[in-house]
């Protein structure tokens, strides 16, 4: 694995030169300054209520943003419901068992439409909501670039192909992020979103019963609620130290071999990412700064030129 990981690092610069990285030309932090100046306040208010009711929802909205942006850009394609004639991304294998929070986006959209009809895209709402989710859980904040449009299409096949899975190797993670113009450092920082949230037993059973690079006490604790057969839907926190606080404990856990998913522990498993993981584990400010920068960068991923877009009136269906 180490050789493959190193090769991926060596190719990263070349990949970014060959790929359209983040196309932020049309985005602006002041995009709605005149047309819907209160949008950020509305999003923050609804998100504050949602997170107060269920802290885990903050992690879910962050994941929703990631899973949207990694499939043909940040275009709210993940929000489209299936119909008799249309198959969207919600029920793709990579999303069906791990993405939630759609009703929170609906609640925000309802209030935004009441204030500024037909003005703010669902994609921008998701971008703002994910920023607030991080901050409301104690993490950093940043200025969100706005001006995205909502796609009229979706791609379940791209969702299955583009989204890294819980069993991903370090090398495949580097390659998947590089394909989106995101560096190995971006990948390592963005993975820190797993400092909050939960995962289903189905996704970490293989690690707690079969992998050598795991803390024995941690594995035994996880086995209590994740038996070798059955209980696939049982949840465990990614970070069992501060499960609902957006901090750098994720990296401290990795150094202690307490990563919940195989793909988590791959970031600290004798490869080039080890040094950065150690830095983040000891420097919360560095992690917060790098995470915020990487979220802005990922938020700049745009759909391909020529993709039909609009500002949806209902995030679940095209106009």
Would you kindly provide a written description of the structure presented here, covering whatever features stand out?
This protein has 319 residues and is mostly helical. It has a domain at 19-169 and 306-310: Peroxidase, domain 1 (Orthogonal Bundle), CATH 1.10.520.10. It is 49% helix and 3% strand. The strands form two sheets. It has a two-stranded antiparallel ribbon. Strands 2-3 form a two-stranded antiparallel sheet. It is globular, with a radius of gyration of 19 Å. The N and C termini lie far apart (47 Å). Disulfide bonds join 36-116, 69-74, 122-315, 201-226. Residues 1-23 form the signal peptide. Its main location: secreted.
Could you tell me the CATH topology label of one domain. Answer: Peroxidase, domain 1
Query: What's the shape?
Result: globular
CATH second-level architecture of one domain: Orthogonal Bundle
Q: What is the number of strand segments? A: 4
Rg of Cα set: 19 Å
* Biggest sheet features: 2 strands, antiparallel
At the first level of CATH, what is the class of one domain?
A: Mainly Alpha
Please tell me the overall pLDDT. 92
Q: Any low-confidence stretches, pLDDT <50, length ≥5?
A: 8-25
Structural class: mainly alpha
InterPro entries: Haem_peroxidase, Haem_peroxidase_sf, Peroxidase_pln, Peroxidases_AS, Peroxidases_heam-ligand_BS, Secretory_peroxidase
Pfam families: peroxidase (PF00141)
Subcellular location: Secreted
Cofactor: heme b; Ca(2+)
Brief write-up:
The chain has 319 residues and is mostly helical.
């Amino acid at each position: 694995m180490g050789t493959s990981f190193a090769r991926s690092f060596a190719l990263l610069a070349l990949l970014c030169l060959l790929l359209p990285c983040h196309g932020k030309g049309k985005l602006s932090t002041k995009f709605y300054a005149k047309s819907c100046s209160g949008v950020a306040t509305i999003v923050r208010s609804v998100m504050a209520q949602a997170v107060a009711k269920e802290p885990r929802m903050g992690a879910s909205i962050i994941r929703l943003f990631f899973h949207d942006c990694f499939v043909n850009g940040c275009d709210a394609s993940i929000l489209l419901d299936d119909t008799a004639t249309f198959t969207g991304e919600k029920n793709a294998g990579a999303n069906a068992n791990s993405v939630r929070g759609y009703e929170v986006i609906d609640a925000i959209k309802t209030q935004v439409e009441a204030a500024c009809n037909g003005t703010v895209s669902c994609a921008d709402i998701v971008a703002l909501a994910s920023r607030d989710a991080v901050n409301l859980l104690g993490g950093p904040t940043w200025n969100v670039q706005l001006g995205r449009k909502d796609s009229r299409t979706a791609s379940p096949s791209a969702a299955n192909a583009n989204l890294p899975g819980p069993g991903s190797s370090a090398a495949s993670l580097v390659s998947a992020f590089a394909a989106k113009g995101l560096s190995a450092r971006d990948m390592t920082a963005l993975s820190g979103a797993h400092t909050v949230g939960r995962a289903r037993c189905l996704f970490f059973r293989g690690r707690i019963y079969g992998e050598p690079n795991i803390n024995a006490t941690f594995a035994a604790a996880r086995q209590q609620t994740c038996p070798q057969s059955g209980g696939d839907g049982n949840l465990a926190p990614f970070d069992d130290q501060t499960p609902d606080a957006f901090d750098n404990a994720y990296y401290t856990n990795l150094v202690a071999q307490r990563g919940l998913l195989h793909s988590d522990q791959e970031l600290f498993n004798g490869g080039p990412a080890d040094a950065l993981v150690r830095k983040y584990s000891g420097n919360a400010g560095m992690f917060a700064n790098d995470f915020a920068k990487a979220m802005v960068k990922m938020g700049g991923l745009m759909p391909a030129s020529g993709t039909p877009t609009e500002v949806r009136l209902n995030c679940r269906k095209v106009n």
